[in-house]
Each structure stands twice: as C-alpha cells, then as structure tokens.
Amino acid sequence: MDYPRPQLQRPNWHTLDGQWHFTFDDDLSYNLPVDVKEWPLTIEVPFAPESQASGIGDTSFHHACWYQREFYYNATEGKKVLLHFGAVDYLAHVWVNDMLVARHRGGFTPFSADITHALDPSGRQVVTVRAEDDPEDLEKPRGKQDWKLEPHAIWYYRTTGIWQTVWLESVPETYLKKLRWSPHLERWEVGIEAFIVGPIADQMEVNVRLSFSDQLLVEDRYRVIHGEVHRRIALSDPGIDDFRNDLLWSPEHPRLIHADIKLMQGGEVIDEITSYTALRSAKVHRDRFLLNGRLYPLRLVLDQGYWPETLMTPPSDEALKRDVELAKAMGFNGVRKHQKLEDPRYLYWADRLGLVVWSEMPSAFRFTTRAIKRLMREWIEAIERDYSHPCIIVWVPFNESWGVPDLTATKAHRDAVHAFYHLTKTLDPERPVIGNDGWESSATDIIGIHDYDNNPERLAERYGPQVKPEELFDRRRPGGRILTLDGYPHRGQPIILTEFGGVAYVKPLDALHQKAWGYFRHDKIEEFERLAVSLIEAARGVAMFSGFCYTQFADTFQEANGLLFADRTPKIPLERIADAVRGKVEQGALFWEST
After folding, report:
1. CATH number, position 225
2. Strand locations in 12-63, DSSP E?
3. Is the pTM of this model over 0.85?
4. 163 and 183 together in one domain
C-alpha cells in the first residue's frame, strides 16, 4: 500500500481499506450509529457501492448509506491518532466508538479528525460513517455524475459515499500539519510554509534539508513563530542555462527535489516527515504559454479519470501510474483532468514521471446562492490540497458555463466567474487561471476554445494564418456560443483549442456498440484512425494556438471517443498517435518534439 498523501509522509500509518459493514438508508431513517440495527451488506472500501469492485454494484438511486468497521488499535502514550478520509461523496458524518468526531461537506476533497479522545483503551475500536448524497441534487459539485437513473450522453454513473482511501496516522502531541511549497524560479528560490499544531515551546525550530539525487542543496533551521514557518530558501544559482536545466522540472525531465523536514526542540526530533518539491514556473507571456520561462506548446489529452469496474476510484496505484505512462506514450505532455479532482497519487506519478496537469473543478449544474457557496468551499479545499504539486500548471474553476448558464445575460453569473478567477489568483498568484473554459470567456489568463468540427481542413482554415484574432472573436461561434463576452475582448492572451476530436469507435461485437456515444462515430477502425489523426495534425499545425487538448484519453462507459478502450488497450498503435501529436521537428515550426 502506497502512502495516500505523497507530499507529507510519516512512517507510522495504517490503512482501513478493505471490508466494511454496509447498508443503504434511502428513507433517511437513521441519525446515529445505534439506530442501525442490521448490516445486511459488506462493501470493499474505498470503492463506491455503484461500482462492481465494491462487491455491491447497485447503480440505483440512494439518498444515504452507512458504513461500519471494527479494528484494533492502541494509541501510544504521548501520541495523537488522526483518522483521514481521501474523499466521501457528499455529506459525511464520522463516529468513533459512537462519538461524533467529524462532519464534512464536499465529495472531492479530504478531511481528517483527531480521534485520540474517542479511542477505547481496550484497543477495540469501531468507526461508523454516514454519507448523505442526494442523487438528483444539482446544486452540489458533481462533475460527470448523472442525475438520471441511467447514464446518458456524456454523463456517467454516480459515486456515493467513500471513494478514496481511509487511513490512520500516529503523530506526536505537537506535529507538522501542513506544508506548502512555492517555487520562485526567477530568484532561484523555493518557498516553504510549515504549519504546526499542538503546544508550541520556546526555541522550537523546523529543520529543512533539500537534496537532488545525491547532491545536498541546502540545510537550514528556522524558528517556529506562532505555530508557523514562512521562508524563501535561496539555492546556489549556477547562472547559465546549461547548468540551470539540470535542476528544472518539466515533462521531459521531471526532476524532483527531495525534502526531509524535522520539527526540533532543544536538539530533540519531535516530528519528522519526508516531502518533495521542484523548481519550475508556469506562466503566460503575451500570446504564449511559458514553462520555466521558455515557450512550451501544450499537447494535452482530456482525461475523465474513470475505470469500468471501479468508477472514479483507481483500481490500484499501478493503474494511476499506467495512465500517466500511456498519456506520455501517445506523445502528450499533459492532461486536462475533466470535471474531477484527481487522486493525489495520480498527481504524484505525474510529478515523478513528468506530465503537466490542468486541474478543473467538478461543476454544479444550477446557479443558486447555495450552489456557489458549496462550489467555493470545495474549490478552496482543492487548491489547498494540490497547491504544492509541480505538475499542476493551470486552474480551471468553470467549464462550458456549467452552473453559470446565463453568462451573456445575467450579471450575477458573470460576477461568479470573476469571483472564482480572482479568488484563485489570490490563493495562487503563480499559476494561470481559466475562468470559464470553452466559450463565453471574460476573466481569464488563457482563452480556451471547444470546437468539435469533424473536418480537419475546415478546422485548420477556421484558425489559419488568414484569420486575425479579432475576426475570430467577433464572428466565429464554435458550438454556437460566443468565445468572449461583450466588454471582454481578446487582450492578447494565449489561445488554446481545449476540446476537439471526439471521434468514437466501438468494436462491432461490443455490448456498447448500439448505444455508444461520440461527437462523430465510425464503425471501421481505419476510418477512426484517419479522422482522429487528421484532426490532431490539423490542430497541431495552427500557429494561432499555444496548444491543444484532444477529446479523449479513454472510452468512458457509453462515451466511446477515447484513443484507448476503457480497459486502456489502444485502438490504434500508440506510435501512430504519438507521431500525430508530436509532429516533425521543423525549422521555425511552432510545435516541435521537445528534447
């Protein structure tokens, strides 16, 4: 079992994944653990009850469900015990030995509880979880989870309850609760913020040791003030690019800086963790995207992050690693994670193997005060969880005006997008933000265009050298929607084709063949290959674009427009896709194969 929180690891932890008692509560009959008199089912955590891997596979509507597990755990004297949940959809209540220890709202973000006070001295512990998740509630962030009983078009089965790992961690009375890493490439510095909870003694310090490969970069000690440490660590700058490049992170060279962090008191180690960071920058300059201060064309693929047997939960850590490897093998240097906040272990593999990630907030689908409050609360938690991952280079709070459907007519909808854009820039000033991806742009650092034209020549002509940007934004309406809102013209931002393709292919004898969905469907693999490759080549050749994002990585249930089948086997040779994505190295060409 791999550590669930890859950027803040301790040796003393224990997974609670595995078999739990389980029952549905459709009538919302139970309020407390003692109300549940029978546990008719068992479930394999962390798989949602809708999934086959859970052992239940019930995809009907359920408003609430309960979990319970008995385990044995004795706390060490002078230590605290923390109970962590990766994600529970949607409203979770947690009891330990019938004592309420946590309440959390939000289906995609983690939460924790100090359960030391609730532990039974005998060592026999019982944890109970109630998850309330109205399947028809359109005011909560739900992403691609269908509000209809059977999935239709681009919507999939729901995810109820626990769907990411559950685990215990032993920590000292005073411990390092949170780290934030902020690379500052222009100054050749790494920013660190450490947050400590518990009794703070005089002269308490945090020791930071950074190393790359076998080379020690820095070792410093900083005084803890009011439970916090905020420092910028200046590294020895080699100056010339040839030496600098040896330490910079990129998809081609994913160089990570290892960190050993110790909380010290009078020479004694109180708490100790391992972490990592990287030196890299992600910015826009005029009409181009820059990685590490250099022009970097983005070759992305849209990734839904679902698996046939496990839904949003990965089958294994190896499956997450394999998805990163497959994206790279197809020639892509990044993914746009679509309508899902991905498991931190995926971000770890993207950090380690080298793949940039666009992080997108799962949408709610009604515009109400409650919906905006819910969305904002969870978006703040998402940024806090993933801020330190070097692979994340863009934040996307809204997609295709979902949840803000009247942007052209209603000021409150526009204000919501602007509020999320500026909030995100406040929480993370270093990364670009796309306020609303696809169309109807206003507050944004990058203009994303969704265009599912199935004619490669027409696609190339629509954005060709004869078309001026002002003409594009004044007259063209891919998808029937204006690209920029009135009063917010193109200000020279980079333009990226953030959705295109969508060519579907299902094997004729596949059970999904009759109901398979795609923007364009072909029943012959040769026709699928010709069109998919031609569309990618057309997008790659448009000089106006700073990048593209092909739809999509893998088939997802009835949405059969993946380059891979749902089981991740390629529809056409990976090398053929990679040739189309990367293109040829040509003198003066905008897109080139990075070395």
Report:
1. 2.60.40.10
2. 13-15, 18-24, 41-45
3. yes
4. no
